[in-house]
From TrEMBL:
Its EC number is 3.7.1.3. Pyridoxal 5'-phosphate binds at residues 99-100, 127-130, 204, 207, 229, 259, 285. Pfam families: KYNU_C. This is Kynureninase. Coiled coil: none annotated. Keywords: Aminotransferase, Hydrolase, Pyridine nucleotide biosynthesis, Pyridoxal phosphate, Transferase. GO terms for molecular function: transaminase activity. The lineage of its organism: Bacteria, Bacillati, Actinomycetota, Actinomycetes, Pseudonocardiales. It is an enzyme of class 3 (hydrolase). It comes from Saccharopolyspora halophila. Gene3D superfamilies: Aspartate Aminotransferase, domain 1, Type I PLP-dependent aspartate aminotransferase-like (Major domain). Catalyzes the cleavage of L-kynurenine (L-Kyn) and L-3-hydroxykynurenine (L-3OHKyn) into anthranilic acid (AA) and 3-hydroxyanthranilic acid (3-OHAA), respectively. The keyword Cell division does not apply.
Length: 403
């Protein structure tokens, strides 16, 4: 039988991104952290960056900081994120709010651009927030939801979208990587199909940004949202980002009108006049301090390069699949993720009836995967911070737990 532990050591030794692992804060009691697709580890430089900001910029400059860069930070960081991870030219990405709030803002703006259409297309296994927000918008705007029934082991496909879109479709909303299975949707094909029907597209990038190459401009996506606390290591509750394709600037209007999105925010006068471009997506004061950890992560991601990160992601998930095939599939464990690399994000999902209890036991031993009700464990592999040895230790512990 193959010595998988030795294989893991060899893969780590040959990993061109191995030096990034030591840049992350290590949790001393954790044997294997397999939940980077839910919450990424913090980078060590985040501590220095935040201390410097608190002492020098906030403490030293005080209110003067707004005139020395803070007013534009949400847009400047958005531009950098767009360039490094989203395939977006400048002026189309803003960092603000939470994913839920930005999803509401941009979905509302999208359906208002199609006032003569009455349907929103979404799938039954999309992330709950996406479904709940769209249900609320449908009730608010007297629209119908057109549901696509998706296999939880896969995700939404272009063929499914083609079957349900037509002259009544205002908006198609889908996740680039399915939160449950890790299925990687063909965003470009879905966008083309939606556009052929005269509809707009809003893409949720939460489970792909920072791990999978994205090219929003090339795909001609209309709107996109995503969080920054998974593969972008922004920390719990870190701000989200919103993308508005420049073809919709000056036309799309989000519904939460606040002073920061006003054309002249310091005039403080009556009436609302939206700012030009992506700034109009903003509502309230940007979370300046909360952007700092994600900015540290962008430094690492830019240095590594998203293509190298994707290659490491595929190697990690390939190794996890090999261990799963060898140790788990003959013990009542089911794989509910795609095997093909072209259809896979950076996590795989396994299922067995007793996985809730097993997940609790693994956490007690310092092996941290992610449980998803009712019976699934996700193995989330963050390329810059996860080693092959960690994957081996984690899957070995899981194999021991299933008996």
């Amino acid at each position: 039988m193959e010595d998988f532990e030795a294989r893991a050591r060899g893969l780590d030794a040959a990993d061109p991104l191995r030096h990034f692992r030591e840049r992350f804060v290590d949790a001393g009691d954790v044997v294997a952290y397999l939940d980077g697709n839910s919450l990424g580890r913090p980078l060590r430089t985040t501590t220095d960056r935040m201390t410097e900001f608190i002492e020098d910029e906030w403490g030293g400059r005080l209110i003067r900081g707004w005139g020395e860069g803070w007013m534009d930070q949400a847009l400047n960081v958005g531009d950098r994120l767009g360039r490094i991870a989203l395939g977006a030219e400048p002026g189309q990405v803003a960092v603000a709010d939470s994913t839920s709030v930005l999803l509401y803002k941009l979905a509302r703006a999208a359906v208002d651009l199609r006032p003569d259409r009455s349907e929103i297309v979404l799938d039954t296994d999309n992330f709950p927030t996406d479904r709940y927000v769209l249900e609320g918008i449908a009730a608010e705007r007297d629209l119908r939801l057109r549901w696509i029934s998706t296999d939880p082991a896969r995700g939404i496909t272009d063929e499914q979208v083609a079957e349900v879109t037509g002259p009544d479709t205002a908006l198609v909303v889908f996740s680039h990587v399915a939160y449950r299975s890790g299925y990687l949707a063909d965003a470009a094909a879905i966008t083309r199909t939606a556009h052929a029907a005269g509809a707009l597209v809003l893409c949720d990038l939460c489970h792909s940004v920072g791990a999978v190459p994205i090219d929003l401009d090339e795909w001609q996506v209309d709107f996109a949202v995503g969080c920054t606390y998974k593969y972008l290591n922004g920390g719990p509750g870190s701000p989200a980002f919103g993308y508005v394709n420049r073809t919709h600037h000056g036309q799309a209007q989000q519904p939460i009108w606040g002073w920061m999105g006003h054309a002249e925010p310091f005039t403080m006068g009556p009436g609302y006049r939206p700012a030009a471009g992506i700034r109009s997506v903003l509502s309230g004061t940007p979370p300046i301090l909360a952007m700092l950890p994600m900015m540290a992560s962008l430094d690492a991601l830019e240095e590594a390069g998203i293509e190298a990160v994707r290659a490491k992601s595929l190697s990690l998930t390939d190794f996890a699949l090999e261990l799963t095939d060898t140790w788990l599939l003959d013990r009542g464990v089911e794989l509910v993720s795609p095997r093909a690399e072209t259809l896979r994000g950076s996590h795989i999902t396994l299922r067995r009836a007793d996985f809730r209890e097993i997940n609790d036991r693994l956490w007690e031993k310092g092996v941290i995967p992610d449980f998803r009700s009712p019976d699934a464990i996700r193995i989330g592999l963050s390329p810059l911070s996860t080693s092959f040895a960690e994957v081996h230790r984690g899957l070995s512990a899981l194999a021991e737990a299933v008996g």
